[in-house]
Amino acid sequence: MLKLHFKTWLIAALLAPVSLNAQEILRINGSTTVNPVVTESAEILKKENGLTIHVDTQGGSSGGISALGDGRVDIAMSSRPLNPADQAKYPKVKFHPTKIGADAVAMIVSKDVWNGGIKALTRNQIKGIYEKKITNWQQVGGPNRRIAFFNKEPGRGTWEVFAKWLYGKIENVPPVAHPEVGANEEARNKVSTSHGAISQLSAAWADGKTVFALAIQSDDGKIIPPTAEHIAKGDYPMSRSLWLITNGPPTGNAKTLIDFVISERTHDIIHKHGYLTLADLK
Amino acid sequence: MSTTATWQSRRPPDLTTCLVWSGALAFALAMLIALGLWIAQASPAISEYGQTLVTGQQWFYRHQLFGAAGMIYGSIVVSLLAFLLATPLAFGTAIYLSEYLPAPARPWAKTAVEFLAAIPSVVYGLLGVILLRNWMADFLSPFDPLSGDMLATAAVLLAVMILPTVTTFAEDSLRTVPAAQRLAARALALNKSQTIRRIVLPQAWPGMVGAALLGIGRALGETIAVFLVIGRLDNQFPDHLFNPSLLIEPGQTLTSKRGGPETHIPMGAPLHWGAILSLGLILLIVSALFVITGILLRRLQKTRS
């Protein structure tokens, strides 16, 4: 009798994943920047339409695009545009990007740097810091403190936007190694708990209490902070679009989710997280 | 004696023996197949880069540079330091638990230690991020570290993590020494510390070395906790091998690299993917070297006694 029970359980355990699959879970992976908007939309859709949606942020934007290319997810979240290399890696996949809003990459610093008088940097200064030619905040008019640069890890949309702004093409980025940070939460945590720290972070995540977003000083001396106004106008240099990418035009549950994300109903969610909606960009 | 053996071998094997053997063989076969697939996928990188995979000090995948020396250094230094920090404490605790603690309290203490061993490593990692990083930055501030992300932080965190494992296995080993021998030692007028040093430790020692080895094994393989506090700075390799200054710098281990985003990026790029998998093979070899060293040490111990 006991044995029979055991067998039943074993069969049930083996069948469980199959029956779960039958429910059609919408699988999503990618950017930690896009993630909060999609996750909150997913929660609303779960209540309203009973959709089961799994959202993950393994490997950031590139991780999401790879997962979509391999067929491991249905939607990739990306904070960088698709590039020819993605298509070359997955020639059979018809990447179909849908723009859902916009955001900017800010250079964020820790409190001691901000209070030490660093409020803006020029492109060349940031380049110097990245290439380790500038290693102390004194060299750019700040406190006497070594610069701790936390680099967004490769594959993150944030890093690619930063790299393209400084070097034009990613292939031109010089080989320098920095300590790496992954998700936005980690970047913010590490910068806020270190002295003399700087990193790249989605501007919306710079809370102005634990980490502070620097303005970019342009060549003609204009100081441009990463605010919604400058992102919408397009004069803040590291602004970027946010994307949901599917294999071919979205269908079924993926379409339901994407349509919801670009509808007016998510404007509050998008604004709450500090991003711009499509309407803001018009 | 020999007749008994032949008689046994001629007897048809019973069901239990069959099951045990087929299970063991199936497991071994599965492991071999996995290892074979692994090596096959790593082979493009191995044949392209050869020994520079191990000796190369530069890893920049966008520039097709795949040298793991910095990560091997990181893995070994962090694990050894964790081992040096944890083992004396663990052995001390084990001796206290086994020899000094009153018998009624022992199960409680033992359960507490094993409970510590059961805490998932991500919890230790997050505690490392929230607490240990800042403590280490303050504690080592005379040396002016860049931040709390250091090889030393990872080593201390690993030491805390392997401490309960080593303690509980070392204690098990001490308990295998029969109580009668302790009584006999008392009868011969040896005091408590003499009994421990002359009677208990020599017999328990091989097991305790085994416990320490398990600790190193866990330290070498630990990923997520190290990942969170080590800083993930590539290509840190000392100019001379015993230069301690890198300990207060961020670094990278074989596991922290594999825990990072690079495992998601190289799909469709066989050389990069092969290089990433080679890191796993290197880790396997490093772990094997540690284990073999441990076995040899134990054998040396046995032949001497």
Describe this structure in words.
- The complex is a heterodimer of chains A (282) and B (305).
- By secondary structure, chain A is α/β, with parallel strands linked by helices.
- Chain A has twelve helices and twelve strands.
- In chain A, strands 1, 2, 3, 4, 6, 7, 8, 9 and 12 form a nine-stranded mixed beta sheet that branches. Chain A has a three-stranded mixed beta sheet with strand order 5-10-11.
- In chain A, strand 1, helix 2 and strand 2 (53-56) form a beta-alpha-beta unit.
- Chain B has 305 residues and is mainly α.
- Chain B has helices spanning 2-10, 15-49, 52-55, 69-100, 106-118, 121-139, 151-175, 179-187, 192-221, 224-229, 254-259, 270-304; strands at 59-60, 65-66.
- The two termini of chain B are 29 Å apart.
- The mean pLDDT of chain B is 90.
- Chains A and B meet through helix 3 and strand 7 of A and helix 6 of B.
Which key phrases capture this entry?
heterodimer, A: 282 residues, alpha/beta, nine-stranded mixed β-sheet, three-stranded mixed β-sheet, 39% helix, 21% strand, B: 305 residues, mainly alpha, two-stranded antiparallel sheet, 12 helices, 1% strand, globular
Summarize the structure.
Chain A has 12 helices and 12 strands.
The spatial strand order of the largest sheet of chain B comes to: 1-2
Roughly how many Å is the radius of gyration of chain A? 21 Å
Determine the structural class of chain A based on helices, strands and strand pairing: alpha/beta
Low-confidence stretches of chain A: 17-22
Number of strands of chain A: 12
Report helical residue fraction of chain A.
25-40%
Structural class of chain B, by secondary structure, is mainly alpha
Q: Compute the separation of the termini of chain A in Å.
A: 69 Å
Order of helices and strands of chain B: HHHEEHHHHHHHHH
Outline type of chain A: globular
